[in-house]
Amino acid sequence: MKMNDYAAALALENGGFLMAGDAAATLKKGDVIEITSRAGLEVTGVEVKTLADAPVAMVMAAARRTDAGWVPYYSDVVYETAYQAAYAQLMSDAGRGFDVDDVLDWQVLDEPVTVVGVQQVTNYADKQ
After folding, report:
1. Residues with Cβ within 8 Å of residue 53, at least 6 apart in sequence
2. What is the CA radius of gyration of the chain?
3. 81 CB-near residues (< 8 Å, 6+ apart)
4. How far apart are CA 88 and CA 75, in angstroms?
5. Is 92 exposed, middle or buried (CB count within 10 Å of its CB: 0-12, 13-18, 19+)?
6. Over 70: is that where the pLDDT of 125 sits?
7. Distance CA 42, CA 53 (A)
């Protein structure tokens, strides 16, 4: 897995990041996510939770606030809550198609997300 420097900075600032669905089989504690050839993020924990139980800082990192409401980074569609916009962003990041009406429903709070805890590592070539 690879991550760009902006996403990595957000992940470090928030102690981790969210992934749509159950990605516990994809990542495990000790894995290193590549940022550059010399720096990466080591996975410190992987836990599947509902979106409602995900850390608020990680939810807020997946969406931006505007005067009209909450907007995911991939589009200009305005959502009423940060959780709706964050879930839309997570689905887009995962490359999954979704119906906007499903995101607008409050049941989106019960959707599973993977909370990935990370810490920065350097010169990690021997860890891969």
Report:
1. none
2. 15
3. 69, 70
4. 9
5. middle
6. no
7. 23
Mean pLDDT taken over the chain = 91
Res 85: pLDDT: 95
**Euclidean distance between the first and the last CA atom of the chain, given in angstroms as a whole number:** 11
Q: List the Cα angle 121/123/128 in 5-degree steps.
A: 85
**Which pLDDT belongs to residue 126?**
61
CB contact at 8 A, 43 and 3:
no
Q: Percent of the chain at pLDDT above 90?
A: 70
Q: Which residue has the tokens 């569609």?
A: 77
What tokens were used for 62?
A: 């997946």
Between 16-25, 52-61, 93-102, the lowest mean confidence (pLDDT) is in 93-102
% of the chain with per-residue pLDDT over 70: 96
Cα dist from 53 to 62, 116, 120, whole Å: 15, 13, 25
- 126: tokens are 């021997």
